[in-house]
């Protein structure tokens, strides 16, 4: 269950799934497929009761890399939906940044551990773009409609303290302890009866995978439409040049 970009380590009843695209861990359909493949193999492993998703490098996941070809978004979302069909509970160890689709990846798990210096953003509006990765479903489900709407419309960045206050982060720990505490969190889950774990989780997440599938269909349609606009080109250029975008509404 180990590839060049996604590795799996078993620690008692906890599987540690690690992304290896440092320093930013930008993703594409290939990487999300590799994560989903690892998850689904772990679903069939009776020795695994919980999963920790973490990443090598400076950031958990800085989203998609818009500086080059973004690939097939339809395939990307098909693979993303597979993450929501996994039966085992998962904890994300979010060090550094979880931005855009990287936030969406963190939201696909059941729990998130971060530090005050962790950074989050659903920055799509600042790129002249529509949110994706099912964030329009997963974010309000966790933090509520109003806070999700605020973050999606402003595209503003916020730190681990704000994420913890909103309920996006479940445990806030010191810098350098994120992975350790996430693994400990998963071990606490793994002490429970495995059949009960999957049963309870299935009940609590009932309908989520289908809701994400429906959302990504709409999200992709809007992303495709907005990618043709001058505002999208300006947003991407401004991000690359590290300046404030000047949008025209065209």
Explain how this protein is built:
This protein is an alpha/beta fold and 250 residues long. It has a single domain (1-173, 202-250), classed as 2-enoyl-CoA Hydratase, Chain A, domain 1. The chain has helices at 29-43, 73-83, 101-107, 135-143, 145-154, 160-166, 178-190, 194-204, 208-226, 230-241; strands spanning 6-11, 14-19, 50-55, 90-94, 97-99, 111-114, 119-121, 158-159, 171-172. The strands form 2 sheets. The chain has a 6-stranded mixed beta sheet with strand order 1-2-3-4-6-9, with helices on both faces. Helix 2 (73-83) packs antiparallel against helix 9, helix 4 crosses helix 5 and helix 4 (135-143) crosses helix 9. The protein is globular and about 55 Å long. The mean pLDDT is 96.
CATH class placement: Alpha Beta
Task: Give the proportion of residues in helices.
Answer: 40-55%
H/E topology pattern: EEHEHEEHEEHHEHEHHHH
Main sheet summary: 6 strands, mixed
CATH topology: 2-enoyl-CoA Hydratase, Chain A, domain 1
The total domain count is 1
- Which quaternary structure do these chains form? single chain
> Can you count the beta strands?
9
């Amino acid at each position: 269950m180990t590839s060049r970009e996604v590795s799996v380590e078993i620690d008692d009843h906890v599987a540690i799934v690690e992304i290896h695209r440092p320093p930013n861990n930008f993703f594409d359909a290939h990487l999300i497929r590799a994560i989903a493949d690892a998850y689904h193999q772990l679903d069939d492993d009776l020795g695994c009761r919980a999963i920790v998703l973490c990443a090598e490098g400076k950031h958990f996941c800085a989203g998609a890399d818009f500086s080059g070809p973004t690939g097939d978004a339809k395939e990307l979302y098909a693979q993303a939906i597979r993450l929501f069909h996994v039966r085992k509970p998962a904890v994300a160890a979010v060090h550094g940044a979880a931005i855009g689709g990287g936030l969406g990846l963190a939201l696909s798990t059941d729990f998130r551990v971060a530090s005050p210096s962790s950074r989050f953003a659903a920055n799509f509006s600042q790129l002249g773009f529509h949110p994706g990765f099912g964030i329009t479903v997963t974010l309000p489900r966790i933090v509520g409609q109003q806070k999700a709407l605020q973050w999606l419309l402003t595209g503003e960045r916020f730190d681990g303290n704000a994420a913890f206050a909103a309920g996006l982060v479940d445990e806030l720990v010191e810098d350098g302890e994120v992975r350790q505490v996430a693994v400990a969190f998963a071990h606490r889950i793994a002490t429970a009866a495995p059949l009960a774990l999957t049963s309870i989780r299935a009940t609590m997440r009932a309908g989520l995978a289908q809701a994400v599938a429906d959302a990504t269909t709409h999200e992709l349609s809007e992303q495709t439409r907005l990618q043709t606009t001058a505002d999208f080109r300006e947003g991407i250029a401004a991000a690359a040049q590290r300046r404030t975008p000047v949008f025209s509404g065209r």
